[in-house]
Design brief:
The chain is α+β, with helices and mostly antiparallel strands and about 300 residues long. The chain has helices at about 5-40, 45-60, 70, 75-95, 95-115, 125-145, 155-165, 170-190, 190-210, 230-240, 270-280; strands at about 65, 65-70, 215-225, 245-250, 255-265, 285-290. It folds into two domains: about 5-210, no CATH class; about 215-290, Alpha-Beta Plaits (2-Layer Sandwich), CATH 3.30.70. The chain is about 65% helix and about 10% strand. Helix 1 packs across helix 5 (about 95-115) and helix 4 (about 75-95) runs antiparallel to helix 5 (about 95-115).
Length: about 300
């Protein structure tokens, strides 16, 4: 391994560690400042940890060997414990490096939740707590995913299902989390459960906006006929997607011969595509539209 490669790997590891800490802060703020004061369930593993913590606090609050069980069964500790079996899914379906950094992210989340537990709540209004907790946490999850990290829990399940079935991570999280929130209704009342569903829905939408790798766009490229082969080769060397070539097109203004290229990529690959095209044709026209439905083989960006 060359010195440059080692330095790059070292820098990438530090960047991911920084992102893991950032996400831990986001979750700690969302949980301690909004969700817990507003009695809102976060859904997923975080929400499940809240539910279990409430059960132990209300019904199983006992002391074992001089230790209060509620101090062990806190949301921060439960988040880590529940994630342990999910690490195997990530190791099997997503990747070893991904799993290692996910472990670090979950560990940082638990640490930051404990460290920020003394924060004074901004408000206890359930709607405000639902919205702002969701926005902060959803942005944190999306930012983590964009940098190759997972916040653990249902995100691991979501990434695995997205890889196998093409379902967006936000949709998977919303479906799974809605079931978890039902338990909140029995413990905190159904109005709180409904607020929790709103929070989960908002978090899923924010995640989909921030995490752009799963967003697919159809790109149309208009290039000169003489440069078509060079442009196609440049794209194929940069991206692993098919290209459809429409020949004998004509520009209506100057009546010059043009070729239209059509391909579908992830939104995260758009800059890479533009660089590949403009490398060969600086004056190429590129436009993109979001793909609502796709049926057929599509090469997913590597996680």
């Amino acid at each position: 391994m060359s010195l440059i490669t080692k330095v790059s790997s070292y820098q990438q590891s530090w960047r991911k560690l920084t992102v893991a800490i950032f996400y831990g802060i986001c979750l700690g703020v969302a949980l301690n400042l909004f969700w817990i004061p507003g009695r809102i369930s976060a859904g997923g593993v975080t929400g499940l940890s809240q539910v279990i913590a409430i059960i132990f606090e209300r019904y199983l609050n006992f002391t074992f060997l001089g230790i209060h069980v509620t101090s062990i069964m806190s949301p921060a500790n439960l988040i880590f414990l529940i994630n342990v079996p999910l690490f195997w899914i990530a190791w099997r379906d997503i990747g070893r490096s991904f799993t290692i950094f996910t472990f670090v992210t979950v560990l940082m989340s638990s640490v930051m939740i404990n460290m920020l537990s003394g924060l004074k709540p901004v408000t206890t209004d359930p709607m405000i707590c639902a919205i702002f907790g969701a926005v902060i946490n959803g942005a944190g999850i999306g930012f983590a995913l964009r940098n190759g990290l997972s916040s653990g829990g249902t995100d691991i399940v979501g990434l695995a299902l997205h890889k196998r079935m093409g379902i967006t991570v936000g949709t998977v999280n919303t479906i799974i989390n809605a079931g978890v929130v039902l338990m909140t209704g029995f413990l905190e009342g159904w109005p709180r459960a409904l607020y929790s569903v709103i929070s989960i829905f908002i978090a899923g939408k924010v995640l989909d906006v921030v995490y752009i790798k799963q967003q697919r766009i159809q790109v149309m490229i208009v290039t000169n006929k003489q440069q078509t082969d060079c442009v196609v080769k440049s794209i194929q060397e940069s991206l692993a997607h098919g290209i459809t070539v429409f020949k004998d097109a004509e520009g209506a203004y100057a009546h010059q011969s043009k070729v239209v290229l059509l391909t579908i990529i992830s939104r995260a690959e758009l800059d890479q595509l533009e660089n590949a095209v403009h490398k060969e044709d600086r004056h190429a026209f590129i436009s993109g539209t979001q793909v609502v439905q796709l049926d057929g083989k599509f090469v997913e960006p590597q996680i």
